């Protein structure tokens, strides 16, 4: 990727007055209900090329290999942690992929890898970087950022980096979170984004001006140089933010601290509640409000519930909109696509999920060139789409959605026409009913879809096969 091609593409789309390859998707809700898409046929149990164990159900003709499971050794020598989550694939040598992968480990459980290099020696999350073949064979692997916490998702940057997100505000200045871990053991404040280069270890320096809140994902707009940030505040309204760095990252070749954080608001409708069911084809003109104190330090050790709302409440005091659990985000042809995991209305026959938001998921599109927010898709029920989480795009412009539901979990495709189809079902993980798909990303040339299973027994997968037969 290079800055010229990104900016030229975005500019051409703006001049044409369209939203790029996903223009049709943004109108998908007009027809409502289920629109079966161009899938690949029935899902069948497929043995893992690694050891013959059935871990995924896939269409006929597809194969996969799992690799770098929790508890296994990195080639660097230390032990792989669990909770594999967000991930991106970058071009490597000889057609290999460079994967930068999050580990969403919470609590003061101690850093994996070398604690002397950790941002916070007490915290157990971070990222790993791996070089793998198109068939999931590991060439090298090891920690690239350690001592962070609850690294959920993030986003790839075109200068060759992954930005990873902490989905927490834990720290020695904040009361314990839902897990009951002792925050007094932490040496640093958490709740930040960190840049992880693909070719070396991260500096472990947080971008504090990009906010201290329950970060989930990042999507970069190369035209403006802005980073768009999603917030997954489980029990409370979540916001959609943008961070404006002090220098365009494509010129700086890295992400600089010291910029400005803003939060999305709907023009003429202060504090618009976008978590509820929307009219098909809903569209809103938006504006952005400044966050005056993006990096709060707390006194008196407030409760975690109080601290985790501190940044969002600043935006809502100025009229910012509220969403339900914003998770995955991806930039594509001038548009940021992002997922509201529990957004929408409760469908007949469904039980509302716990937490803030009573639906089974929404997909939104923010057009950077028109400053317009559009509803892409709202789940008509849990059997069609159940709590979408991470998101990426295929070469054909189809969204790949990782589910986070309570029953069977699927990888699903959402086409530009709003058609939805099943691509993979996760086989039960023994002893972990909450296992879920995460971190999907196509590798160089689109030959392989890399994806994780987030679990205490987490692992990564390489999937390949006849992509041309269906919607991806």
Give structural notes:
It contains four helices and 26 strands. The protein is mainly β. It has a nine-stranded antiparallel β-sheet, covered by helices on one side. The protein has a six-stranded antiparallel β-sheet with strand order 1-2-23-22-21-20, with no helix packed on it. Strands 3-26-25-24 form a four-stranded antiparallel β-sheet, with no helix packed on it. The radius of gyration is 20 Å and the shape is globular. The relative contact order is 0.17. Mean pLDDT is 92; it is low at 1-34.
- Judged by helices, strands and strand pairing, the structural class is mainly beta
Outline: globular
Order of helices and strands: HEEEEEEEEEEEEEHEEHHEEEEEEEEEEE
How large is the radius of gyration? 20 Å
Helix content class: under 10%
Q: Could you tell me the number of beta strands?
A: 26
Explain the layout of strands and helices.
Layout: H1 3-16, E1 44-47, E2 54-58, E3 63-67, E4 84-91, E5 97-103, E6 125-132, E7 138-148, E8 151-157, E9 161-166, E10 193-197, E11 215-221, E12 226-231, E13 240-244, H2 249-252, E14 260-266, E15 283-290, H3 304-307, H4 310-316, E16 326-332, E17 335-340, E18 362-367, E19 372-378, E20 388-393, E21 399-403, E22 410-414, E23 420-426, E24 436-442, E25 448-454, E26 459-464
């Amino acid at each position: 990727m290079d800055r010229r091609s990104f900016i030229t593409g975005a500019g051409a789309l703006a001049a044409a007055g369209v939203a790029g390859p996903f223009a049709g998707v943004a109108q998908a809700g007009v027809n409502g209900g289920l629109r079966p898409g161009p899938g690949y046929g029935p899902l069948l149990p497929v043995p893992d090329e690694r050891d013959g164990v059935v871990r995924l159900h896939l269409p006929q003709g597809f194969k996969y290999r799992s690799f770098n499971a929790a508890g296994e050794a990195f080639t660097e020598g230390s032990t792989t942690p669990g909770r594999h989550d967000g991930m991106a694939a970058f071009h490597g040598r000889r057609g290999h992929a460079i994967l930068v992968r999050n580990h969403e480990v919470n609590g003061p459980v101690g850093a994996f890898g070398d604690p002397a290099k950790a941002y916070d020696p007490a915290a157990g999350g971070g990222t790993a970087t791996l070089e793998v073949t198109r068939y999931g064979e590991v060439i090298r692997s090891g920690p690239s950022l350690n001592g962070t916490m609850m690294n959920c998702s993030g986003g790839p940057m075109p200068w060759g980096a992954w930005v990873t997100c902490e989905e927490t505000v834990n720290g020695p200045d904040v009361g314990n979170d839902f897990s009951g871990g002792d925050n007094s053991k932490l040496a640093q404040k958490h709740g930040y984004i960190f840049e992880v280069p693909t070719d070396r270890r991260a500096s472990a320096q947080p971008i504090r001006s990009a906010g201290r809140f329950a970060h989930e994902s990042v999507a970069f707009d190369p035209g403006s140089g802005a980073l768009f940030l999603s917030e997954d505040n489980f029990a409370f309204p979540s916001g959609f933010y943008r961070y404006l760095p002090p220098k365009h990252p494509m010129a700086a070749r890295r992400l600089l601290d010291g910029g400005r954080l803003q939060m999305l608001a709907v023009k003429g409708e202060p504090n618009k509640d976008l978590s509820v069911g929307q009219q098909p084809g809903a569209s809103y003109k938006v504006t952005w409000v400044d966050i005056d104190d993006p990096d709060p330090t707390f006194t008196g050790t407030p409760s975690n519930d109080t601290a985790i709302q501190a940044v969002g409440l600043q935006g809502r005091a100025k009229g910012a909109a509220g969403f339900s659990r914003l998770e995955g985000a991806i930039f594509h042809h001038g548009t940021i696509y992002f997922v509201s995991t529990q957004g929408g209305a409760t469908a007949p026959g469904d039980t509302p999920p716990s937490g803030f938001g009573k639906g089974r998921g929404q997909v939104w599109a923010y057009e950077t060139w028109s400053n317009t927010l559009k509803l892409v898709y709202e789940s008509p029920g849990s059997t069609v789409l159940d709590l979408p989480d991470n998101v990426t795009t295929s070469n054909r412009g189809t969204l790949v959605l990782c589910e986070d539901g309570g029953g069977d979990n699927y990888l699903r495709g959402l086409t530009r026409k709003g058609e939805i189809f099943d691509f993979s079902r996760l086989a039960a993980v023994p002893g972990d009913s909450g296992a879920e798909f995460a971190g999907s990303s196509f590798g160089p040339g689109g030959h392989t879809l890399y994806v994780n299973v987030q679990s205490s027994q987490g692992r990564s997968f390489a999937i390949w096969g006849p992509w041309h037969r269906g919607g991806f």
